[in-house]
Amino acid sequence: MKSASLVVGQHLILNNQHCEIIRILENDIVQLESKNDFKLINRTKMDLLREHENGELKFANCKDNTLIKDAATHESKDLSAYSEEQQQIAKLRMDYIRMASSRLGSEPQYAGLDRIIPIVAANTKDQEPPSPITVYRWWHRWEDSLHDITSLVPKKRVRGYTNAFKKPVLKMLNEIINDDYLQRERATIQDAYDRLKALINSHNKTTTRTMKAPSRATVYRYFENLDPYEVLLAKKGKRAAKQKFRSTGSGIYPDYILGRTEIDHTPLDLFVVDDKTFRVLGRPNLTCIIDKASRAILGFSLSFEPPSELSVIRALRHALFTKTNLKTTFPDLENEWHAYGIPMCLVVDNGLEFHSKMLRQLCYELNIELVFCPKQEPQFKGCIERVLGSLNREVSHKCAGTSFNNITARGDYPSVEKARVTLKEAHELITHWIVDVYHQRPHSTTRFTPDYLWKEGLSKVQPRLPESKDAFALACAKPVGERKLTNEGVRYEGLLFNSTELQSIRRNPNFTGFVNARINHENLGFIWVHDEYNDEYIRVECREFEYANDLTLLQHKKIGKEDNSRSDANYDEDRFLQGKERLRNKVEKLKSHSLLRERKKAARIAFVEGHEEYIATNFEQHTQEYLAEHIGNLDDIPEFDSYQLGGFDHD
């Protein structure tokens, strides 16, 4: 550690500006000269001492008006950063300098050191005392470093290769490194060494001026001195090199709740079973949204739907609205889920589902700024990445049928054979973990619980809500373009939609025969038709409402494949209902299929998530019995040390 005083000639870093004390006037006025623009700066000694105490002033070592180290942004290492052997050597050298400065004066001088050295050697029991010129050099180095003892630490000698390698050998080795070692095929150092020996042997057979192959240890030392970033860049690419040598931090931190939210998907590390047949259906996908300021989870979606705009919309629907009736569905919950509201900013990755026109339109409707992370840079939304990992570790990995997070961790555990949890049970377990565990546990970064920070944030921000659930449903409805409006109504995918309000549009003198429509692909029971004359949307029910209500577009198309002979001429409502029933029977059959992918496909067709009817459904008795027998109380789940997760932020 350096030490210095306010004397003429002393160099300082004052508010990140390089200055030099050029004179000290009466009344302790210190005149500084800026080395950037040569302006004079007047300060009292007391001002400088106060700025030093506040960290605004640093003493700097300087040579030829150039800072040896950028003291504005760097701190030198202290003695403890070196090995024990290096520390002992530096302390011994310091003993010689102390004796010399106390006997000969503060300025380094050569005369008289020959009398000082034997005394210090006898006191310290130094078996190999240094020469006077060596002590003189140590003394000068110590003074030049502003009395920094680390300047006396023996420096590692950087070994060159001029003696180890002859120029032709060194040229061969560098060519091998460029042509073979620094390639994506990832040749090893041993490969490079073998080729070097082969080239040298081939050269020696054709000339009398033979060359000697260096030892393996010498070649390995040469490779160790290659730039590790350049090596990784050449072998594994820019992404891997940037990931390993990146500088991490907390990133952008909002000042208020809902100022910045993050969303992402992950497959649940758990195989789930059908709630009737108890056949394994596969691993569902989880889409989750988190508020960065409070670390509270706003909402999630769990289904067999692959990551898509539908799964994003489902998660947004759950996140935006309040969850006041949650205890009606899950009576075992001890706490309320307080987080809700329209976020100001939604951070997403570059998945195709986040670039969909429908999602962009919805964000414009709700005044949500959609922020895309740089490609292949998941750390830009690290909060959601880590909470998904925590959820899988603390819930999925505790349940029978877990797949763990990789094959190595799974070992020989028979995940499929052990699977017992249904999709509804998984939904309940995740809700329980969020509300009663994660939201009630102090976060490792904020030091407060997400639930507390959310409640505190409500004093600054009142969450925004959609105008109504119908308005939100309309915003989520996908435009289907212009549709012809006739006396039968509007047709979409073979379904007819009609109402009295719709026919009033046809009576308008300016009616062109076509209307714009929007429909929710998760429920074909109704369609929204734009009344351009009143500038409003009309909700129109399907004429076959009993068939179409709560029917998804995917299910409808599956039914259409089963009976593609249906037409207007021979339409029969019974055939519709029979087709719907045949689909249900086929789904049940697929759920019992021997192939897991077929059962997972069936689960996607059968499962319609996001409707209030599903949310309010009470679980069957066997669900509760299973939770009591196999899962137990979630309070018994042990706490995890979140600092083991690594990275620049923790959950």
Explained architecture:
This protein is α+β, with helices and mostly antiparallel strands and 651 residues long. Helices cover 39% and strands 16% of the residues. The protein is built from 25 helices and 20 strands. The strands form five sheets. The chain has a six-stranded antiparallel β-sheet, with helices on both faces. α2 crosses α3.
- Please state the structural category: alpha+beta
Number of helices: 25
Question: Mean pLDDT across all residues, rounded?
Answer: 81
Radius of gyration: 37 Å
Proportion in β-strands: 15-25%
Total count of strands:
20
Proportion of helical residues: 25-40%
Cα separation of the termini:
37 Å
Tell me, what's the shape? elongated
Tell me about the largest β-sheet.
6 strands, antiparallel
- Going across the major beta sheet, what is the strand order? 17-16-15-18-19-20
Regions with little confidence, pLDDT below 50 for 5+ residues: 70-74, 565-571, 608-627, 639-651
